[in-house]
Amino acid sequence: MCGIVGLLLKKPQLREQLGQLALPMLIGMTERGPDSAGFAVFTDELPDNRRKYSLHAPGWDYDWAGFEAEFIKRFGTEAQIEVKGNHAVLICDEPVDKVRPWVRQAFPKLHVLAAGRLMDIYKDVGSPADVAGRYQFEKLAGSHLVAHTRMATESAVTPDRAHPFTAGEDFCLVHNGSLSNPYQIRRQLEPLGIGFDTDNDTEAACRYFEWRMREGDDLEAAIHKGFEELDGFYTFLMGTADELALVRDAFACKPAVVAETDDYVAISSEFRSLAKLPDIKNAAIFEPVPEEIYVWRT
Amino acid sequence: MADVTRAPRAAADAVTFDLSKQSLRSLNQFLHHGLGATKKVVVLNPDGAHNIAAGVNAQVDVEVDGHAGYFAAGMNQLATVLIRGNAGPGLAEGMTSGVVHVEGFASVSAGAAAHGGLLVVEGDASLRCGISMKGIDIVVGGSVGDFCAFMAQAGRLVVCGDAGDALGDSLYEAVIYVRGKVKSFGADAHEEPMTEADYDAVKDLLAKAGLKHDAREFRRVASKRELYHWNANANQEY
Fold first, then answer.
1. Spatial separation of the C-alpha atoms in residues A293 and A290, rounded to whole Å
2. Where are the alpha helices (H) located in chain A, listed in sequence order?
3. A290 and B146 in contact by Cβ < 8 A?
4. Interchain pair A271, B145: CB under 8 A
């Protein structure tokens, strides 16, 4: 069991309140996922030549100043680093295909959780309330976010196995359910040069969709192929630069509910996590049907 | 069985539980052990909590003023539970008597394995509605999802809208009445001619549910009874 949460704001003036609005949603899914939590937030877009990287360090006393010095030494360009506990967001001019391999080689204990021009990711073990507090979830601002509370079934309880998972740039996925053929997917992708960070089943789905989109599919076409390739139970919620997408498997074993007002689209595993949203009593509420692709754009 | 009556909210003699201030356990303990002469209980701010009014065994009206989560009114006996919102998975599972009425939609497995009573869902009911039902009557005002009435043994399921895939798969003696389209029938389920007794049954159930449709618009789906006995010649092709 896990909890999924998504919020997309329709009015730019609400963006400062994104984390504040979504915090009760995340906390509301604690019983479905008490062991880890994570969230991806889509912020203001960086210019085309800039990138940001969400980094995860093994401890809170990590030497980020030393990391910055090494970065400048290696690339000869400035970097901006915003540290929150054992996470940091690195903003620089260097592209993904240079930064990822360099971090992996020079700082093997650091994980690059996300890359892109909009998306910041924080994820860690602990109760959703603890994780949210640790990374100041309520202060998040942005157009949309994807969050998750985890009750682990398929792999160990560690920060890197918490959701959201990411692949490519500005793409993330959270999952409630379990896949029965993640290793089949891995064996399909690994020969194409696609690397995996963990043994988690959700990571296979995330990399599968990102691979399909890199091959030219749009998100909906990629999901249609996923219906054929991904076996198991799932409610997937995905975030892209300007979309939230929701899909449930044919048997709809894992729940989902959507509430929409003039101000927001809110998605959760259960209504109880939506109950504290403003104007929820007047929201249009529905249960997404199986194998239907729901996409909301910012 | 009496029709569902729409008593006014928070009637003067009602006991009110506000779940934004009181625990679910205090509500359910009252419903199980503290009712005394209480005839009506109103639940405010249910906000999708699980197990609201589960396991009630008393002639009491319970009115839930909002959305309920998993297993609302599960195992109900005798009580009339009105949910003025939507219900989560497992609504009225295992009910044996009484009435459960939902004004909105119901998630998966509504009325599963229930032995008796009446379940009314005014909106849609999701997948597996009436799975393994054993005597309950279910009336759905909207449409139902896939695998409804799977292995349904007894009772009646009335669907005023459409039905999804594999309707009535492996049916026993439960009967389904559908007004709209059926995406596909499950193994051993088929359409049969309506008899006057069927029209009367649908008319009666619609009246109890407070839904205004013409019973003549419904079709009967029941078991072919071909799965009742092992057929060595079937070659596993059902």
1. 8
2. 18-27, 64-75, 96-106, 128-134, 182-189, 201-214, 219-229
3. yes
4. no
The answer to whether residue B49 neighbours chain A at the CB level (below 8 Å) is yes
Q: For residue A273, what is the DSSP state?
A: G
What are A268-291's pLDDT values in tens digits?
999 999 999 999 999 999 999 999
> What would the pLDDT profile of A98-153 be if each residue is shown by its tens digit?
999 999 999 999 999 999 999 999 999 999 999 999 999 999 999 999 999 999 98
Task: State how far the alpha carbon of B229 is from the alpha carbons of A141, B225, B233, in Å.
Answer: 63, 8, 12
**A285:B67 CB<8 A:** yes
B49 vs A250, A272, A276: nearest CB: A272
Mean pLDDT of A238-248: 97
Helices (H), strands (E): how many in chain B? 2, 11
How many CB atoms are closer than 10 A to CB B152? 33
Three-state SS for A145-213 is EEEEEECCCCCCCCHHHCCCEECCCCCEEEEEEEECCHHHHHHHHHHHCCCCCCCCHHHHHHHHHHHHH
Q: Which of residues 139-158 of B touch A (CB under 8 A)?
A: 145-146
SS3 of residue B92 by DSSP? coil
Smallest CA–CA distance, residue B48 to chain A, in Å, is 4
The pLDDT of residue B11 is: 61
A2 is catalytic: yes
Tokens 């999901």, residue located:
A223
Chain B from 97 to 136: CB within 8 A of any A CB? 104-105, 107-108, 124, 126-127
Cα A188 from Cα A277, distance rounded (Å)? 42
Residues A69-91 have a mean pLDDT of 95
pLDDT tens for chain B, residues 1 to 238: 334 444 445 566 899 999 999 999 999 999 999 999 999 999 999 999 999 999 999 999 999 999 999 999 999 999 999 999 999 999 999 999 999 999 999 999 999 999 999 999 999 999 999 999 999 999 999 999 999 999 999 999 999 999 999 999 999 999 999 999 999 999 999 999 999 999 999 999 999 999 999 999 999 999 999 988 877 777 766 5
Query: Do residue A270 and residue B146 have CB atoms under 8 angstroms apart?
Result: no
Name the minimum distance, in Å, from the CA of B171 to any CA of chain A: 19
Q: How far apart are the first and last CA of chain A?
A: 29
The answer to whether B58 touches B37, Cβ cutoff 8 Å, is no
Q: What is the mean pLDDT of residues A214-230?
A: 95
Q: Mark yes or no for CB contact B47/A285 under 8 Å.
A: no
> Tell me, what's the ipTM?
0.93
Of residues B48, B70, B105, nearest to A275 (C-beta): B48
Contact B19, B47 (CB under 8 A): yes
